[in-house]
Design goal:
The chain has eleven helices and nine strands. It is globular. Strand 4, helix 2 and strand 5 form a beta-alpha-beta unit. By secondary structure, it is α/β, with parallel strands linked by helices. Strands 1, 2, 3, 4, 5, 6, 7, 8 and 9 form a nine-stranded mixed sheet that branches.
Length: 238
């Protein structure tokens, strides 16, 4: 979905979201609240510039609008794969962005992520995956790595990975599989504005993705391992 159409659907009472290249920012009105909106479009590759733009926008919301809810719109092909970005330390820029999201959370901002087009790799980790809760549209594309690329890296035949993807959501792309793993809180269809109002009002505290992943059958060991570490015991992997 194009971001302009998405913004109109999410904010039927109006918005002032604008794009600067692949960077999105502004505000929207929904459910009687003003929501700060920061995100990307155009399958944006996250390089040092756009990482800093997002971080600066988040810090501006924290500084000027205490406790204002924040919506992160996600459309990214992952981090930009250029020698220049690597030499400049893209990992630190992206870590800085993640820290700014965490600062906003600690200052009382409710943070919701929405994958509306594409979400890959590090560009997703430091945006939607850093939110209090992340959601996706049904047609969104979400994956860590394409199975063909994964086969080249791991030396596991692609046919084997395709077979694994049929039964294991860790290997499979798509919002349904990320929902099973607990990475997504839900998939939004229908009245997107109503979904957003409910997501902003949700006062869930803490990271429960491993709990959801266990309950939904997508991640069988993450929560038991966490529980075992807390208890100082061991986990039964059978």
């Amino acid at each position: 979905m194009e971001w302009q159409k998405l913004a109109t659907t999410l904010f039927p009472l109006g918005h002032d979201i604008t794009s600067e290249g692949d960077f999105l920012s502004g505000t929207g009105q929904v459910g009687g609240d003003t929501i700060a909106v920061i995100g990307t479009t155009g399958h944006a590759p996250i390089g040092v510039e756009i990482a800093l733009m997002q971080a600066n926008a988040i810090l501006g919301v924290v500084r000027d609008h205490p406790c204002r809810p924040l919506l992160l719109l996600v459309d990214t092909q992952g981090q930009r794969l250029r020698h220049r970005d690597e030499m400049l330390g893209i990992n630190r820029y992206m870590a800085h962005l993640g820290k700014c999201v965490e600062l906003a959370r600690r200052r009382g901002h409710r943070i919701v992520g929405l994958v509306y087009d594409q979400a890959l790799s590090g560009g997703f980790i430091t945006s939607g995956m850093m939110a209090d809760a992340c959601y996706a549209l049904p047609e969104a594309t979400i994956r860590v790595m394409g199975l063909a690329a994964m086969a080249r890296i791991t030396k596991v035949p692609q046919e084997r990975l395709i077979a694994l993807a049929d039964s294991n959501p860790v290997f499979a792309p798509g919002p349904e599989n990320y929902l099973r793993m607990g990475a997504l809180q839900g998939i939004w269809d229908g009245d997107l504005a109503a979904h957003l109002v409910l997501a902003i009002a949700d006062k869930q505290v803490g990271d429960e993705r491993s709990v959801f992943g266990l309950a939904r059958g997508g991640r069988h060991l993450a929560q038991p391992v966490i529980d075992a570490v807390i208890a100082g015991g061991h986990v039964n992997a059978t």
